[in-house]
């Protein structure tokens, strides 16, 4: 067995024990003392007077503690005791602190505030009356970061709703919803380009005729995000001087405005809230959005891969790139910089989707995401990554071009398939369309699961296509996680409180420690087996011939044991073991004080660590009695298996 084969063996031998779930959310049934409220929900915030619950549909409800049942009140008190000393961390975007709400709708007078067309205000709200272009200015100056929330209903099928925004105190931009045929949305103008020609282009209809929609604009000095009914539609980051209004607009630079074009809308709510505190307050991005600047190399002692900025201070990559490394071991290298950027924590992990989102701090401008998920077959794309060529050579920010070929379903998940050739190390990089929007995340190659799928497909193709398809398989066809899945993950992270972010980050650390302990346990058990003295081997040959092996440990045959022993003693394997053990005591001390694990799991972590040390000590003096050796080894294996299963249930 070669050293690389041994490395693979060590990490796969105990894989059945370390298949961790993608979340550790604790849902329970909550009820009020009068029995009028009952729901499955997770407790996310609590104080002495009220609790905030997130239900299974992700909606949030706040209840007074006095309304809860006795059992629920006791649970809250225990939760508070457990969490009162917990450290929290800040995700890439912490929810802003908002000041008091201002009702803009009540301020508007259609007679004096209308610039063009006709608007009417009645008990049901503010409605445009079907003019070719109807514009009304909100009579209130805005400055600094703010949030604008409006509830609108499209009254007729045609036409667009536009909202004029102020950003950076003196710059303006127009947000467009459902203009033209087919309907399109986005920002106009960015660098003097309207929405079909810039990175905010959204290709799917946003609003539904006859139904209320909630649109929320979150505006910082250099960052703008727009959501509709909770889903992100547009996110833009950059120097606000790049934003302009068309010269035809004659609106004061500190005013917001509403406009409909060839349509009619009713605005039933229009609320403005200044942002009093924000983590983005001092975020001043450097330069323009560029894949060449925003795609990074991720390194840690056990591997490397690619990541890219998809929102301010949020780095996207594949889960498998970072799953074996604590945040402190992850180093992010952006182009043109010698120093690496530290990772604050892993905020999102989806094992099944192979997706992860990391928190860090940088002034780099994030890439735009195609939030509509629109990827037509045959569209030209470019893939960026840090492929490994062998011999320790890694290309930095390499570009491979190709086209979207199909959508492939693998174990219940959709993946984009391109005809671009990629190599190891590009995992986690972006797949970009011609507007430099991220339409996918590089996830796997044809040389892995995809190759099997392609060869199965080749068998069903006619002769004219077989040769070309085989060539694609040999070159390595790239697969990618679609942008709509990335968009959901980003929205998930944005909804995190600081405490939830801290929990997610700590859970990642716990999972890494668990995997390292599991691998170390496998190595130590293997070492005992391959290093067993010859006298025990002689006894084993006699004993196993005379009795059943149910209560006996099976020894690895001499020749394979010799190969394994050499591989285990090699320099590279010893270096791997040293990395697995590095800072283990520090990691275990952190786990002991973790507010996100039960006392039983903390005890199990400690017990597993102690068992590994006991196995290591036993390897030094295994004795000369095969029956006693078997009894000890079987006990070790059972203990390790039980502890792993118990820890895994909570993680």
Automatic annotation (TrEMBL):
Residues 26-78 form the SLA1 homology domain. It comes from the Bacteria. Coiled coil: none annotated. Pfam families: SHD1 (PF03983), Trypsin_2 (PF13365). Keywords: Hydrolase, Protease. Gene3D superfamilies: SLA1 homology domain 1 (2.30.30.700), Trypsin-like serine proteases (2.40.10.10). Belongs to the peptidase S1C family. This is SLA1 homology domain-containing protein.
